[in-house]
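Sample 3 of the quickstart, ligand zinc ion:
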Amino acid sequence: MSVLRVGSETIHICPGPSKVLARKPGGDHWCFGCRQRLPHTLVIYGDEEPSYYEPVGVLECSGCGRDRTEFGT
Ligand SMILES: [Zn+2]
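Result:
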């Protein structure tokens, strides 16, 4: 982790959660990339050690491998 100072603000630059902790079936969702309803995988990213970041879940499309369950993403 590095720290950047901008004026009086101190910004912590963290690599963020990058490790895949778990992969679970995420159910079927509409993919705006594939324009189909496809099974998705819920990928949980996080750090193994306790950290500033909560684990985050990302839906991964089985078609394109991306989370495009919301329009415009
Ligand atoms: Zn897709």
